[in-house]
Amino acid sequence: APRRRGIPVSASLWTRLREARLLRILGVYLAASWLLLQVADLFVDRLGLPDWFVPAAVLLLSIGLVIVAATAWVQSRPGTAALARAEELPGAWEVDLGDVRESVSSGRLPHLTWGRALLAGAIAFAVLVVAAAAFVLVKGRAPALGPDAAAAESAAPGVAVLPFEAHGPGLDVWHEGMVDLLSTNLDGAAGLRAIDSRTVLARWQEGVGGEGQVADLATMLEVARRTGARYALVGSAVSVGSDVRLAADVYEVEGGELLGRAQVEGSPDEVLPLVDRLSVEVLRAVLQGGGGNLPAVSLARVTTTSVPGLKAYLQGERLFRSSRFDEAIPAYKQAVEADSTFALALYRLGNVYGWSESVESDAAHQYVERASRLVDRMPEREALLVRGELGLLRGDAASLDVLRTATEKYPDDAEAWYLYGDALFHLGPQLLATPDEIRAALERSVALDPGFAPAYLHLIDVAFGDADSSAARRLLDRHRELSPDPEAANLHELAFSAAFGSPADRRRAVAAADTFSGSSAPMRLGARLWNPRFAETQERLFELALEDPQPAVPAAVMRVFNLLNQGKLHDALGALEDLPLPPEFVTSVLFLMVGEGLPVPPGLVEEKLALQVPDSLRDASSFFQALHAVDAGRASEAEGVVRRVRAAVPRLLAAGDSATARLAEGAALGVEGYALARGGDTARGLDALERSVRQATGYGIAQGVNATLRWITADVLEDAGRWEDALRYWRSFELDSFAIRRRARIHEELGQYEEAREDYELFAYAWRNADPELQPMVEDARAAARRLTSVTRE
Predict the structure, then answer these.
(1) Under the phi-then-psi rule, with left for phi > 0, alpha for psi from -120 to 50, and beta for the rest, what region is 138?
(2) Tens digit of each residue's pLDDT (9 = 90 or more) over 178-194
(3) CB of 523 closer than 8 Å to CB of 541
(4) pLDDT value at position 51?
(5) Closest C-alpha among 297, 277, 276 to residue 287
(6) Predicted pLDDT at 764
(7) Rounded to an integer, what distance in angstroms lies between the CA atom of residue 271 and that of residue 275?
(8) CA angle 158–161–167, rounded 5-degree value
């Protein structure tokens, strides 16, 4: 074989590559390079190295790849080892640096060995690291090292309480003592993490010096930064006569911005109360200016001086803001146990019980009642909110006036708008509020505080009522982002599938509701599906709810309304006989069915609507029976009911039962007005009826009384030809199929043909499965829709 300088030349390139083990060496090199780049990327994140560090490392590794390949090639040449031993290969320093061109062209290069290749790589990377470190030091970007700084990024926002300056005899104890006391108070409050006092004092020793040493602000902020804190508390203790004044400034460590100041003064013998008061003031400052991932909680008017109570309250606020109502209850209870006069905690406890149980919750009433007894010592804003919440829980229409006033006085207060929207949702329809008004109030709250999850819940309900799938989807997604409760999220998704899913999706949602979160899930899902488009799915859900061995009364009530909304008269009559329903509810439904001209068996009407004297005013059957007596021309019988009810009102007020007294007076006024209107005195009758609607509001049977008063008022207005006024009342029954039919006729009478056509079509759809004897009403609605379609297209 031919030879060059005594070295045999391989017969083939593949043989040389195999002898060099080039592929194996390159594979090992690339794997090691990948590992090295991961480490480099980690250094960039943790040590704040410049962004060009990783690209520079990639460049060095690419150069190294060429050198490694060349080394493997050279080392694989036959006779290389022998020539090296014979010193026929150039060494590291045998190249003529003065004449590099001639040296390279003559092939006199330093011999490539593995040792030299590895050493060169190590030196190159060492130079790179030194350069990056120098860059960081010059730019001042070096972060504090150590366990505190390393964990700070992922931990809760940290606050470092620095040693206080002490000026005055006997105050030296405040220098380091305040670090311990304030750190203990602040830790865990509002999601803050107090840096351990030992860590703070160790960094202080390193950066400032021993006991009694003072430092300027920049040095103190540097000490706080080295502990990994986001906030620094810089304070002083000064003698003021026989008292001591404690003052503290709260700074944001990054940038040194002053967030707020706190100051208290008192006897040095009362150390702990003074520290507690200072802690509360410090929290006010942090929450007012801290931002970031701290809750948007204002402590500007919190009156408690109990640090444990305040910490528990703040924990409750974090949970409440994310709609985790059941979890918030223990936290607020702990706050109330720590300070029984903590009015805001009492108020909020009632609020969360209203969400966790219902607006009729006894616990909700109890706690808000307690808060209301403390309103005289509260600022005006909080007093308005407590009074408004109490009125809402009592079902009092005056609560809307109180909360509307709160929004007018404090137009940028998200909570005032939220409570106003909540009250409109529950009581608004009884007072002729529209879904647009409810939506506007809640959307205002969301715009002011997008991170407040409870404000989205009734917006979701409104979207379901509108059958607006895109709005419902957007609001559900946003609420899920704010609330980490997986059970609530799953229930929301079931509701969405039950309403807007395919037929198969709806069936699966109903089946899942049967096993989800106990027997309440079908009820909770069905309560969102009042739009006539969802009636069949809602019916199946209420059937599931009634399979419980002891079904709740609301499930039976909703079942009856669902059947009536579909025109299933026979099933509804059967439900009135078979389901566990309050007698006054049965009476109210029969009165409305007769009024709408439905074929109700005469015997049932006589049995249930014959005027009787109940044992208690809490049984409102006599109200509906009195109205039926007016329709039957027996107004004198109705007058006897009015006299009896009015005679009982003073006794109810004397017994402290203002809610029943208000409802009784409203019902009596309504019967009186109805008798006047039907007797020919329409003006006086309508005046009394409209006043009765506003007075007779509330929950349970009060809702039935109010609905009936609105219904007969709309009837009287319609008979009087006051179409627009009647329409306002019929709109308050937004998703009731009977009211939809009434609205359609008025829209047509007013020449509002597009609205009339939509309502006729919706009624026909709702009653598509109505009983055979009711199908003529469905056909009339379809014919009207077809007629108006041609009119609207002209």
Answers:
(1) alpha
(2) 776 788 778 777 677 88
(3) yes
(4) 62
(5) 297
(6) 96
(7) 6
(8) 165
DSSP helix/strand/coil, 602: helix
Angle between helices 658-678 and 682-695 (to 10 degrees): 160
Residue with tokens 């780049």: 37
Q: What is the largest distance, in Å, between two alpha-carbon atoms of the chain?
A: 136
Contact 296, 445 (CB under 8 A): no
Phi-psi group of 357: left, alpha or beta (phi > 0 → left; psi -120 to 50 → alpha; rest → beta) = alpha
Q: Which of 23-27, 267-271, 346-350, 494-498 has the lowest mean pLDDT?
A: 23-27
At which residue do the structure tokens 């980490």 appear?
Answer: 484
Can you say how many angstroms the Cα of residue 694 is from the centroid of all Cα atoms in its chain?
32
What the block records as the tokens of 630 is 């007016």
DSSP H or E stretch at residue 499 = helix 486-500
Residue 163: name the closest of 194, 193, 208 by CA.
208
Provide the pLDDT for residue 494. Answer: 93
Q: Which residues lie below 8 Å from residue 572, measured CB to CB, with a gap of 6+?
A: 560, 563, 564, 589
| Complete DSSP assignment for 200-217 | HHHHHHHHT-STT----H
Residue 364's closest CA among 402, 334, 325? 325
- Structural tokens at position 593: 């069915």
The half-sphere exposure of 672 on its side-chain side, counting CA atoms within 13 A, is 19
Q: Which residues of 586-605 are buried (b: 16+ CB within 10 A; e: fewer)?
A: bbbbbbbbbbeebebeeebb
Pairing of strands 165-167, 3-4: unpaired
What's the CA gap between 699 and 416, in Å, rounded?
22
